[in-house]
Amino acid sequence: MGFFCCLSFLWDIIHINKHLSTPSETDGCQRIETRICALPDDLLLRILEYVPTEDAVATSILSKRWRYVWTMLPRLEFKDEGSESLGFFIEKSLQLHKAPKLDCLIVEIGPRCPADIDVGKWVENAVNRGLRKLDFDIFGTAKPTIFPKSLYTCDTLVVLTLSNKILVDVSSPASLPSLLYLNLLNVVYKDEDSLVRLLSSSPVLEGLMVSRHEDDNLNNFTVKVCSLDTLFYDGTRLKNEVEDDDDDDDDLNGSLVIDSPALTKLDLIGVWDYCLIENMPCLDVAYISTVPNPDDMFLRSLSSVIHLHLLFTKSMVACCNAIKFSQLIEFYFFPDNLVDWLMPLMFLLQNSPKLKSLTIENVSFPSSFPTNI
């Protein structure tokens, strides 16, 4: 609470009324401001960490004492609020920023930002200063933006989030030895090899969140990461319309392949193409929604789960009698409206000897995973 009190106190000083009524009040405020300025840089930086980056930069005009304090902040965040000058502001802020390490850079750029901004230069600047977290969102531009190769060889990066109009181009060998969490949200991929190189370059990756759209330039999406613990995959936007009663495989022209033996949590939404899940002996929790064309191998891969949320479709009916869920304790069953599900459910229950909790809801399936890992 102490830092929040200091922040509030500082904020009062920054926004102090310029039209004070008496000299004594003016003298008092000057004494308070002097005391604030006398605080050590470390404390002032801790206070500025709770202030939006734009306001932190604005403190540089308060006095000579404040001029360079913000330049040592370990975290910078720039959010687009419709200003055409945002690109210039980010450019100058990164040029003036003097901290030897930049732990976190968060950037959101909208359609009003000039097309000639050098985003790659910003990323290069951050990567060269020991960056640990990068969250970059570009939306509304004419074509996807390519990031510098140095991003994919950053040995300090722990969290990487790329969103929307970004082209994932990993054409040369990559190395991300510290990366734990990777979020790829509606980006575009140069090719399938770029995805493979990116994932294979992350030997300690624990969390992967993927959201795809129909123009992401991939047919086959392969997740082969030995260290992966949690996977969230949302392919809802890959297909705009799906007939409720269409369960043949004629339209399948792509695949989702998951080969991650350490995986314990899996969330699948909108898997329209062929899905192959293999080698997941540690899987404990699974949320399966809108997987219209699963086969018996798909359901068999879930046989070790302890907690299962399943949107039950017509193509799953034939598999129910043969698959045993020997570890299943908690089962949330969401049957499709067009499926005669009572008898298949009986088979599932008979094959689940440890089951303690059963919930049946004939409603749209809710994903229980957060929007970020």
From TrEMBL:
SMART domains named in the record: FBOX (SM00256)
Entry-linked InterPro entries: F-box_AtFBL13-like (IPR053781), F-box_dom (IPR001810), FBL13/AtMIF1-like (IPR050232), LRR_FXL15/At3g58940/PEG3-like (IPR055411)
Domain F-box: 33-81
Alphabetical list of PANTHER family matching this protein: EMB|CAB62440.1-RELATED, F-BOX/RNI SUPERFAMILY PROTEIN-RELATED
Record-given protein name: Leucine-rich repeat 2
